[in-house]
Design a protein that fits this description.
Elements: H1 11-14, H2 19-35, H3 43-58, E1 59-62, E2 65-68
Helix pairs in contact: 2-3
């Protein structure tokens, strides 16, 4: 189930990540969804893990929320 817009992302993602991080998450999830289509049993879980990993390469979680890496 690829996400067409950031508004379609799961609430835990939408409510904690800034808009640019949501773009990264959505793009990574959708790319992984296309790439790992053969493993249907774990597809969604794998795609969410990949998407979070992509966000964590560009952002870090602080007490104030998710901040871009510098």
């Amino acid at each position: 189930m690829p996400y067409r817009t950031n508004h379609d992302l799961p609430p835990p993602v939408r409510h904690v990540l800034p808009a640019h991080a949501q773009d990264i998450y959505r793009a990574a999830f959708n790319n992984a969804w296309e790439r790992y289509g053969d493993d249907l049993a774990h597809r969604e879980e794998r795609c969410h893990r990949i998407a979070w990993a992509a966000v964590k390469r560009a952002y870090r979680k602080t007490e104030e929320g998710w901040q871009p890496n510098r």
